Amino acid sequence: MPVRQLSEATVNRIAAGEVVERPASVVKELVENALDAGARRIDVLTDGGGRRLIRVSDDGEGMTRADLKLAVERHATSKLAEDDLVLIRTLGFRGEALPSIGAVARLSIITRHASEPHAWAIEVDAGVKAELKPAALGEGTRVEVRDLFYATPARLKFLKLDRTEAEAVREVVRRLAMSRPDVAFTLAGEERAPVSFAATLPGSTGRLARLGDVLGSDFRANAVEITAEREGVVIEGFAALPTLTRANALGQYLFVNGRPVRDKLLIGAVRAAYADYLPRDRHPLVALFVSLPAPEVDINVHPAKAEVRFRNAGLVRALIVHALKAALARDATRAATTGGAATIASFQRGWDWRRSPARPSDPQHPFAPSRGGFAEPTQAAFDTGGPAADLRADFPDGFAAGVELAAPAADLLDHPLGAARAQVHDTYVVAQTRDGLIIIDQHAAHERIVYERLKAAIDKAGVARQILLIPEIVELDEADVERLVARADELARFGLVLEGFGPGAVALRETPSLLGEIDGGGLVRDLAEHISEWDETLPLERRLMAVASSMACHGSVRAGRRLKPEEMNALLREMETTPNSGQCNHGRPTYVELKLNDIERLFGRR
């Protein structure tokens, strides 16, 4: 077959295939054009998930008649002052996307520039351009795209359900709204209720407000600010506390010079920064904004500009990890406020005192049910020797077991975690603060404390060891024994000294002294199980921290241990001075705080 030149219509449709993948791609290009035009308000309307109609209106500077005529021509752009593809300081190429969209749909543009007496309009139908004509428009630009892909029916088969396409459009608008909190956005369509994001004030306060509007109030209440700068690279943004997570990484957003991008660099950096806080199957919420000189980043590696390539990717990654770790260390004694809200909600949903199994059945009981409902308590119930003299008798077995009341300590109420007042089920410490109460998981809290002690000891001079009088022999599978013996040097750094004892056992000779008396056999078996799941590509430090985490779990105060009041208060004070004490090594919260206002609402007092 001889070589031939493709027709202009075919070339335009090929270009459209690179830029316009689905309705969300069209919305992205048009909204980016509006932002580049200086818009302060952008309205997006879709129908049929964007398949039947996409309308983007803005109040930007608009285009003159001459600019509009060129805007629908291929390889025409207002985004480059010179032919330098490196110095790109805008989001998109207006003249590149519009002809591609017009090649596969019915495109209509109405725009007015301040220097023009009236607006101008142009239409492009499957690549066929109509003549410019006068139009009516107050300011800015309005672009309508109808019957997307009608000129290329094969592409329609690859579109998903209208609701799915509408959700993709929604995600595009959300990302762009996060990148520009100073611009007001409105998204409407038949698939969902309209969504509006009001313009916010400049600075970190306005940025957090917009992120809260997009990601939810929980993120706003549990976010820590991120700031870092090195060698011209600036990292800003917000990250959620480790106790506020999701099951996937879709809540992680990266913006480079104002451009929303999806980059594996962010996923790896966030995973490294949160390695000490989260289990593998949980992912934090993060919104990071990277600013750097235009020559230091290549935005042309992807046709839709969805990915970028950094000239010094190592610097950017290291700075992101450093900024996240510093912010989390600064605020990691906090636990997510969602814990208290979830606790209140569980009370409201799950507990009905009228149907409680603890409800007394004796008809003479002051709280017993009567024909008209529950009877009012009689004065006799509160007299000495009355049927309610010992209220614990009315609760299920085990509720009061393990409760040890602590004497009120008013001088401790001003501490962040308050004064310990009771221990419930030999597992949870209840503390009182000035404006509420706190429930602490004693094992999770002490686990984090021991873990931080181990890390500090390793950084200083190594972990002190205690020699066992009689080595403990632990029987394991031969494969587990081989893995442990191969890691003996790494384990010794943490004060755990073991050696092979035949083909199916190891001898544990020394343990870390700060752990005290521990179940050495259980610890060795857990370590063998964890080591079998290690990714050998992980850095040595990450693997060692996994060992420390397992050791801390075995060396901490266990659930079921009765604590004295002074021990409970000592635990609270140590939590207040321990880094990252808001969550344990597995990412679970160490405490839940209930504000007095929430408790009063629970009981109908507010």
Could you explain how this protein is built, in words?
By secondary structure, this protein is an alpha+beta fold. The protein folds into 3 domains: about 10-195, 2-Layer Sandwich (Heat Shock Protein 90); about 205-330, Ribosomal Protein S5, domain 2 (2-Layer Sandwich); about 415-605, 2-Layer Sandwich (formyl-coa transferase, domain 3). The chain has 18 helices and 27 strands. Strands 1, 2, 3, 4, 5, 6, 7, 8 and 9 form a 9-stranded mixed beta sheet that branches. Strands 10-11-16-13-14 form a 5-stranded mixed beta sheet, sandwiched between helices. Strands 21-22-23-27 form a 4-stranded antiparallel beta sheet. The N and C termini lie far apart (about 85 Å). Residues about 350-405 have low confidence and may be disordered.
Short recap of the structure:
By secondary structure, the chain is α+β, with helices and mostly antiparallel strands. It is 34% helix and 23% strand.
Look at the structure and give the CATH class of the largest domain. Answer: Alpha Beta
Count of individual beta strands: 27
Radius of gyration: 32 Å
CATH topology of the largest domain: Heat Shock Protein 90
Can you name the CATH architecture of the largest domain? Answer: 2-Layer Sandwich
Overall pLDDT confidence: 79
Alpha-carbon distance between the two ends: 83 Å
Range of helix content: 25-40%
Number of helices: 18
Low-confidence stretches: 350-404
**What sort of overall outline do the alpha carbons produce when their principal axes are compared?**
elongated
The CATH superfamily of the largest domain is known as Histidine kinase-like ATPase, C-terminal domain
